[in-house]
Each structure stands twice: as structure tokens, then as C-alpha cells.
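Example record used in the benchmark description.
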Amino acid sequence: MKKPTVKGVLRSVSSFLLFFLTVGFIVSCCMMLFLSILADTMELTLTTDNIAAAAKVTFWNVILITFLFKFADYIRRKIMVERPTKIITAATEKITAGDFSVRIPPMKSAGTEGFNQIAAAINQMAEELGSVETLRSDFIANVSHEMKTPLAVMQNYGTLLQAPDLSEEKRIEYAKGVTDGSRRMADMMTNILKLNRLENQQIYPQATEFDLGEQLCECLLQYESVWEKANIEIKTDIAEDVKVKADAELLSHVWNNLFSNAFKFTPSGGTVTVSLSATEHHAVVKVTDTGCGMTAEVGAHIFEKFYQGDASHSVQGNGLGLALVKRVIDIMQGEIGVESAVGKGSAFTVKIGRC
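Model output (C-alpha cells):
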């Protein structure tokens, strides 16, 4: 229990005096009015003794009423102000110390509705901070884990390159391993920066009107060497003159990621299908492959950062591509969905608003 300070005592005394003067003024006015009306009505003569006796009674009544008012106000403040303030202060101190699991329970006392609103806002803030902290911790852990693999590969190949009797063929193979590892790290850093800028709204879409079918064809042709090398059949069903108003550069990231994944997970001899259709309000793009597919559990997490459902293909990516895709689609107020079955392939559907 805190000891009373001089300042606290002075504040209490001044508060009591304020109550006393207020009550005294009100009671005195009421008594004077009452006595004046009583004297006029009953034709009484007020003597000095009568007034003095009434004044003494009034004075002590004022003292008693002031004390009762002050005591009632003290109880009210303890229950309706100080207790909620202490609870909220204790919770915010824990949040400041890094404990985001703190929640302030609802206060059921009358007159604490305002404090309940503050408590609800603090609870929501703590929940958001807890989510951010979890994401931050997971992000750091995932980045560290993802960097270890290419670094270990580069280190191993670098060690092998130091062998004095290394053949030219092996030297090229090991050098390529170092180059692939560095490229993967560079791609990961680039994607992290892009995703960070998108999530912090540091990239503002520059909407222009363009033919979506032409953009799809241009992006798809960039992978011609990939599908020819892997002997993958390409099927297209692209409607003509489907125009959208969006950021062409950002949207190209969506198609490149979807095409890249389709070719990565489709085995030799498989098929990748790209279709574009139009409804009254949307352009609908569908990218389908005949790859390994995925379970419903994997499909529920594929848009999360660093998530890789198929560990056998993890060396070809870093789990950021679909997170970028989802963020871009959200910024453009579009929709993206996936249908997949193990052993049958996957189909990604993207809806973008038409002009």
C-alpha cells in the first residue's frame, strides 16, 4: 500500500473544501429561501437567536452532507475509476515487457462501459502484436533455415573446387553448383524485398489498360525452352480482346510464378494448360498442370511465406512465389483459388476485374 504524500493530502483537503463550499452554498440558499417563504406565509418574525440556532444546525448538516458526498465519491472512484485503471495499467505494462498473451477481462461494474471499450481495444492490439511477433519469429527462423541450404551447398562445392587434381568436367559441375546456390539466395532476397514492399504498401499499383491475352502469351513464351527440354505439352485456350485495367508489371509476376510452378511440378510427358475467359465483370485465368498435385492440407497453406508442401522440389524454390502472387492479387482486389488432387495435378484460377 502506498504511503500518502503531501501532494495527495493537499489534493484531498482541497477536494473536501470544494465539496464543503458547494454544499454550503446550496444548502444556505435553500434554507434562506425556505425561511423567507415560511416567514411571509405564516407572518413570523425571525429573531437573531432563531437565525443563529438555524445557522448552527445548517453548518453541521453541511459538514455531514459534505463528508457523505466525499465518502460516496471516494467509493465510486475506487470501484469505477481506480480499480479499472490499475487492471488496464498492469496489462499494458506486461504488453510493454513483451507478453502479448495478456487479455483484460470485461468489467461488470456499473459505469465502466468506457473502460471496457479501452480494454477491448487493448486486447485487440495485444492480439495483433502477438500475431506480428509470431510472424516475425517465424520469418527470421524460415529465412535462416532457407539460407543455410544454399550456403551449405556453396560451401561444399567451394571445398571440392579446391581439389588439385580436379577434372575440367567436375570443375564446371561444381562451379555450376556454386552459381545455382548464389542465384537461389539472390532470388530469395529479391522476393523477400518485393514481398516486404508489397505488405507495407510501398509499391503503389500503376493501373493501365492492356490486353490480358497478349500478356499471358508473352509470359508463357519465356518458358518455351523449359517445356521443350522437359517434353511438356502446352495447351492454350485464350479468348481474344479481353482487356483489364491493372498494373501490368505486378500482374506479370503472378503469371510467371504460376507458370514456373506448373512446369516445375509437371513430369516429362505431362501437360500444362493455360486458359483465359471473360465474364461480365471479370477476366478469368486458369493454369492447370498434370503434376503430382497436393493434399487439401497442403493446399490450405500454399499462400503462406516459405511454405513448401513438396520437399523434393524445395531446391528449386524458396516458398515465397505464391505468397507474392496472393499479395498482388489482393492489392488488385482480385481472387485466386486452387483445386488439386494427389497424382492428378493442380489448377489455379485467378479472377481480375475487367475494364
